Amino acid sequence: MSMETVTKLIVKRLHEILNLPVVPTDNVGKKPDYPYVSYKNTTARGKTEGQPIIESELVASTNPLFEFDIKETAIEQPTFTISFMAYAAAAFDASGLAQMAHDALKHSLYYELEDINAVVVDTTDIVDRAILIVGNYEQRYGFDAIIRITTEASRIVETMEEINITGGINE
To answer: Measuring CA to CA, how many Å separate 16 from each of 10, 56, 104, 109, 138?
Structure first.
């Protein structure tokens, strides 16, 4: 599973659940009318704890000299972080929308994320992220979500199935 796939699912489902636009935070185009939610992947891959799980299996060799090779697959569970912000005309509306997005992510999307081997492992507090824009405050509240996914990376290791030794041993 990839960060991109999980993020796309979350964005699509938040849009459906909230019935509001969910757009990239760094969108250079025209912003939607209030209220809306924005998102940004702020950590592409967090560190994983411990060593990856390595699974091995025999596979047909591509080398005509050998019958089998070994396919090694490393399985890890890295995290990534998505930052969400809710925008509205009034601060209470922005904080309420952020709470709805938070609840949807933590509860409504639980089984859908589980189905694709992803889970929300933590969320930060919902905090005021209002900013001053030319004499007016843009009311926004936000939080970060840390998502854990399962990733796999494989490689083929050629095997030696038979060794012919010629000559003697020098003493």
So the answer is: 10, 41, 10, 11, 24
Is there a contact between 141 and 95 (Cβ–Cβ < 8 Å)? yes
With a pLDDT cut of 70, the percent of the chain lying above it is 95
In a domain, 53, yes or no: no
d(CA 119, CA 66): 42
Which tokens is 160 given?
């030696």
Enumerate long-range contacts of 161-165, CB under 8 Å, 24 or more apart.
161/66, 161/67, 161/68
Average confidence score pLDDT of the chain: 87
Residue pair 146/77 in contact (Cβ under 8 Å)? The answer is: no
Please tell me the distance from the alpha carbon of residue 75 to that of residue 151, in angstroms, as a whole number. Answer: 6
pLDDT in tens, 113-145: 999 989 999 999 998 887 777 778 788 899 999
β-pair partners for 57: 71
Expressed as residue numbers, the domain containing 85 is 3-45+81-141
Number of domains in the chain: 1
**Cβ atoms within 10 Å of 87's Cβ, excluding its own:** 26
Q: What is the pTM of this model?
A: 0.78
